[in-house]
Write a structure and sequence with these properties.
four-stranded mixed beta sheet, three-stranded antiparallel beta sheet, 3 helices, alpha+beta, 7 strands
Length: 95
C-alpha cells in the first residue's frame, strides 16, 4: 500500500488548510504553529501569500519554496504502522 499524501490544498482563514488526500479523505489542519523560521516570515505575516499555497509532490508548498512535512500535516508525526488507519478530520498540530 502506498503512503497517503496530499493531492490538493485549499487555504482557509486563520492559517488553516483543507487537505484532500490521495486516499479520498478530506481533513483540515491549523498550521500556524508550524510556520516557524525565516522562510515562513512573509507567509505568517501576509494572508495573501499564505493563500498561494499549492499541493506539489504530495505535500504543500508556497511560491518562495517553503514547504511542510506531509506526515506532520496528515498524521501529526510519523505515519501509523497500521496501513488501514485513517487520518483524523481535525488534529491539533503543534511544534
Amino acid at each position: 500500500m502506498s503512503l497517503v499524501r496530499i493531492a490538493t490544498v485549499t487555504a482557509l482563514a486563520g492559517q488553516r488548510l483543507r487537505l484532500e488526500l490521495t486516499d479520498g479523505t478530506t481533513i483540515e489542519r491549523e498550521v500556524g504553529p508550524l510556520l516557524n523560521g525565516p522562510v515562513f516570515k512573509e507567509i505568517r505575516e501576509k494572508p495573501e501569500l499564505f493563500a498561494r499555497v499549492r499541493a506539489e509532490g504530495g505535500t504543500v508548498v508556497w511560491p518562495n519554496g517553503a514547504d511542510l512535512c506531509p506526515d506532520v500535516l496528515i498524521w501529526g508525526g510519523a505515519p501509523p504502522a497500521d496501513a488501514t488507519a485513517r487520518p483524523q478530520r481535525e488534529l491539533q498540530v503543534t511544534q
